[in-house]
Amino acid sequence: MIRVLIVDDQVMVREGFSVLLNAMPDIEVVGEAVDGRQAVQKVGVLRPDVVLMDIRMPEMNGLEATREIVAADADAKVLVLTTFDLDEYVYQALRSGASGFLLKDASAGQLAEGVRIVASGEALLAPTVTKRLISEFSRLGTPRAPAQERIADLTERETEVLVLVAQGLSNGEIAEHLVVAESTVKTHVSRILVKLGLRDRTQAAVFAYEARLVTPGG
């Protein structure tokens, strides 16, 4: 069972997501939190596999909470819920350690699948969110020098895989694109994370954007 903690300051949202997720045979909602501060406390006690995190909340917002949760547990998986008018927070949340994003108007099936993807260690970036993220990095201008320097540690194939990860492709999709076995892609991703000192695929995506391996044109 995938254990989930739902964090949102709106009762109806928490209850709605709880009903949807508890209806899934492989997912269990183990708790709810009304703000970021309570979320940090409950994560320490409940040890959920995935934290479904809203961004705008009183006391402590989702960005601060995500940062504290990930700092306390490097293996923590935080799935941030966002709406179109909150997309300006995407970059900040990724930098804070979020494992992925899901739009609040997602269907029950998309919500459950999003939880499963993040729990398995994959990154989850909705296409609209990915476009916004690329635009944000484009707006920031000059790529970070340390990121560019570290690219030299990667092989040509690893760099190619990194770009595809940043574009939101799963291991299976990358394998199909490159015409290789999925196990080969997993090996490449593992090596990329080790070489670059990154914790997960989402950080790998952030790195690719910072190094300007991914641009608005591709």
TrEMBL record:
Modified positions (4-aspartylphosphate) in chain numbering: 54
GO BP of this protein: phosphorelay signal transduction system; regulation of DNA-templated transcription
The organism's place on the tree of life at top rank: Bacteria
Keywords from the named record: DNA-binding, Phosphoprotein, Transcription, Transcription regulation
Response regulatory domain span: 3-119
Pfam families: GerE (PF00196), Response_reg (PF00072)
Residues of the HTH luxR-type domain: 147-212
GO molecular function: DNA binding
PANTHER family: TRANSCRIPTIONAL REGULATORY PROTEIN NARL-RELATED, TWO-COMPONENT RESPONSE REGULATOR
Name recorded for this polypeptide: Response regulator transcription factor
